[in-house]
Amino acid sequence: MDFFSSTFMNIIPFVVVLSILVYVHEMGHYIVARINGVRVDVFSIGFGPEIFGWNNKNGTRWKVSYIPLGGYVKLASEDEIEGTKESRSDPGSMMNKTPWQRIAISIAGPAANYLLAIVLLTGLYVSVGQRVPLDQIQFGDVIDKSAAEEAGLRRGDILFAIEGVETLSVENFQAAISKNPEKPLKFSIKRGEERLELIATPEKNELTGGKIIGRLGVALGPVVELRVHGFFASIGHAAKDTLNMTVQTLQALGQMILGERSADGLSGPIGIASVAGQFAQQGIVALIWLGAVLSINLGLINLFPVPMLDGGHIFFYLIEAVRGKPVHEKAQEIAYRVGFGLVMALILFSTYNDLSRLSIFQWVQNLFN
Fold first, then answer.
1. Each residue's pLDDT tens digit, 187-205
2. Cys bridge to 178: 30, 109, 122, 213, which one at CB 3.0-4.6 A?
3. Cα 158 from Cα 58, distance rounded (Å)
4. What is the pLDDT of residues 121-138, one digit of tens each?
5. Do 196 and 189 meet the contact criterion of CB atoms below 8 Å apart?
6. C-beta atoms surrounding 116 within 10 Å
7. Which residues on neighbouring strands pair with residue 199, listed in sequence order?
8. Rg (Cα) of the chain, in Å, rounded?
9. What domains lie within the chain, and their CATH numbers?
């Protein structure tokens, strides 16, 4: 399947999942804003020109727009620089509320995503079962001419032991490969009913900044078993897994920033759409599980203290609460511009990664050969 046909097949599940997550996120903002007496001018799923919409009795314009890559709620006077006086006389204005009320409104969106993740995982754990990782790893696609291929690893192989690693997990496996470039490692493999001992030597990979890590060149995932729990136990397990996924994401980002992990695996909208299409083919259970994971990531990313994101607003409101007055308008303006640049750079970089994995650059080159 070529790039364009595969992309088209992934669009529908991606748009459906993303729209639900965005709706829940923005509904969190909407509910807490209304509780605090803030007028909501617009509630939009998608960006750009409106496809259809309606006004409710509170004057909010609810609409669906043409570009289905997010959404927003527009609160009264929210687009003004914090601390300006233009709308202080309007009781429905965001600027007329205390910093703590504005913090509550800003944090409500990410909180709604975390709550959704816990609800989805709870439903899965009660009905289908919790995915509990075993001390094993299953290999997926093997990159041509990679260290994994040279070692004889195949798709579907199950790794149950690796030299120098006591407790086998995806994280521990990745750490062992990363820390041992060009060092032979003994793998204990199950291939069907057969057990094998293979020697794999991670190839040397130089990251930005000159740091050298090992790279094997194989997709992988944990081997899991499903354990069904009662309702209240499922809530506890869902909350714990939500916290663990948050911590693991932060650890992975920290390793990328420190140069201990390659950022090649960072995905943007195209990569997420591709994954959504693959999960949709596996069935509704897999798609719900993916929705929970993406909801956690959406909530976490929006809490980062970057202007433009909810976390950036929260950061400014906290400073205002401590100082007793807003951050200077010029400083906010500069921060928002820097934040916009950072967000756009991240989107462009992750999209480049997505296109590289989908071989679109090779496809374009072949057009001119």
1. 999 998 899 999 989 998 8
2. 213
3. 58
4. 999 999 999 988 888 888
5. yes
6. 24
7. 186
8. 24
9. 3-126+291-367 (no CATH), 131-227 (2.30.42.10)
